[in-house]
Amino acid sequence: MKFLKNKADHLTRSKAIAIFYMRCETYFETVEFILGLDARHYQNYLALCPNHSAMFKYANNCEDLILSLFLSIEDSDEMEVILAQKDLTIRFTETHIADLKKVIEVDSAR
Questions:
Q1: Is 1 part of any domain?
Q2: Which residues contact 76 (CB under 8 A, 6 or more apart)?
Q3: Residue 101 within a domain
Q4: Residue 2 in domain
Q5: pLDDT digits (tens, 9 = 90+) for 7-30
Q6: Distance between CA 39 and CA 76 in Å, rounded?
Q7: Domain span including residue 16
Q8: What is the DSSP letter of 22?
């Protein structure tokens, strides 16, 4: 899915999208971040390059811990994950963190 065409476009849309903190390709794919929520929320998706999207979907060594790892983010905008047996970092915007925490709160109240 091509929805970020260039870096300038990326900068305008990055407020609602978490981006992997590493070299990525010229377009991004969306991947669901926290599995098991009752409803679909656009805030629960990450924009990743095709390689890291596949790693997140199929080689996610910490899939069961994603929710607790995300909720433990306090003074940082980064979250460490293990994908394909590599330690990697997901960097979030402050807005995305706040929005996603609210989505989790609302979803858990259902």
A1: no
A2: none
A3: yes
A4: no
A5: 444 444 443 445 444 455 467 888
A6: 27
A7: 7-108
A8: S
